[in-house]
Amino acid sequence: MTIRVVVADDQDLVRTGLVMILDAHPDLEVVGEASDGLEALDVATRLRPDVLLVDIRMPGLDGVEVTRRLAGPDVADPMAVVVITTFDLDEYVVGALRAGARGFLLKDAGPELLVQAIHAAADGDALIAPNVTRRLLATFADQAPDVPVQPIDPLTEREEEVLTLVARGRTNAEIATELFVSLSTVKSHVASLMVKLGARNRVEIAMWAYDTRRVRAD
């Protein structure tokens, strides 16, 4: 299945490079481009791509606000959004993920990681650049309450294991390998976690784990 992508970046050279990287893969198709936040919102709303790749800093609306309007907590049919940026700042990372982004990459992450992030977002997974993950998780841990918050329906032992691995950034396939279970079993546990935690995606599961100190950054 071909993954349809819209690319939004205000720098023409960067946007062209991103399009070339994605179009080089037979299962990826760039169906639209945007050079500012308002255009990104319009193009993505009209075309409904499988994934929106959006720069964090753009004229009109920044990438965080675009993400919030297309994938935020109040959006009934959230879009898969991957945020990409040159700026390795905590507030950008946290802001983008809380706005609903399924991925966060730095522009120097490289083509392979970019393509992985697009695939992960399209599959309902999430990918955060490894060089920002540890600091990001530490940020969530610092903001978390001292007493862990428990879900209304207790997590099973296996769900606790899956929760930890999701929070560590593992994909479904990696979790299946580590726990010696099938991919469908992992997907079932992740779906159950979403229901119990009131999370809409894997990023929100991971954020809940660190926000409540169920998983710690160390």
Automatic annotation (TrEMBL):
Residues 4-122 form the Response regulatory domain. One of its GO terms (biological process) is phosphorelay signal transduction system. SMART domains: HTH_LUXR (SM00421), REC (SM00448). The modification 4-aspartylphosphate is found at residue 55. GO terms for molecular function: DNA binding. Residues 148-213 form the HTH luxR-type domain. It holds the Pfam family GerE. Keywords: DNA-binding, Phosphoprotein, Transcription, Transcription regulation. This is Response regulator transcription factor.
